[in-house]
């Protein structure tokens, strides 16, 4: 019998976070979801608990996590999914204020969450949703790429400091989400190689649905703990075979 888990997911309103919520609930897990707005299409369930939150509000985030503590002090899995794309532009055309805005949500908000969880909850596994952009450094993707690279090393440091908890920076591949829609709806930029690759993948059906990706992540979540804690893992290059 599969043991039901208590799972915290950030950014559950739409996209991958929404799909992860549904995938977890379908498996009989209890989900604590955090985002600015409640998730679309998630049916009412006594196993789903929603917490409205602005993750860039440090004090508010801590207060919300304290509220969560009233329901449980054990989290079997934490999925740090919330994030933003930020501006797509060459770095000289990326304002420092825009870069700070991306870092605030993609990196610093996750630090606030993890720091608070470490001191108040019993934790087993934390997965941070990263991106291949964290390693590619593609032209035009500066803010997003740098922030996801910072998230990767943030999780690695936590892993080295907390050997009793397993951390993974996980790239989910190309996923059909509002973020992807915003990228593909832009005017093509032939000087950006990544732009061409994404559009080619979309034309060839190479972009996965959010729900299929969420199911894949949940299928491999436990097995990720066999990879050294703190590692970056891309679902397109797993060290084993996994079906969505």
Structure notes:
The protein has 244 residues and is of the alpha/beta class. The chain has a single domain, classed as NAD(P)-binding Rossmann-like Domain (Rossmann fold), CATH 3.40.50. It is 42% helix and 18% strand. The strands form three sheets. It has a seven-stranded parallel sheet with strand order 3-2-1-5-7-8-11, with helices on both faces. Helix 1 links the parallel strand 1 and strand 2. Helix 1 packs across helix 8, helix 2 packs parallel to helix 3 and helix 3 packs parallel to helix 5. The longest helix has 25 residues. The two termini are 21 Å apart.
What's the SSE blueprint?
Layout: E1 6-10, H1 15-26, E2 30-35, E3 48-52, H2 58-69, E4 74-75, E5 77-80, H3 96-120, E6 122-123, E7 125-129, H4 133-136, H5 142-161, E8 166-171, E9 175-176, H6 178-184, H7 193-203, E10 208-209, H8 210-220, E11 231-234
Helix pairs in contact: 1-8, 2-3, 3-5
Tell me briefly what this model is.
This protein is of the alpha/beta class and 244 residues long.
Q: What are the salient characteristics of this protein?
A:
single chain; 244 residues; alpha/beta; Rossmann fold; 7-stranded parallel sheet; two-stranded parallel ribbon; 8 helices; 11 strands; 42% helix; 18% strand; globular
Strand content: 15-25%
Summing up helix and strand content along with how strands pair, one would put the structural category as alpha/beta
Number of strands: 11
- Report the C-alpha radius of gyration, rounded: 17 Å
* Poorly predicted sequence stretches spanning 5 or more consecutive residues: none
Biggest sheet features: 7 strands, parallel
Tally of separate domains: 1
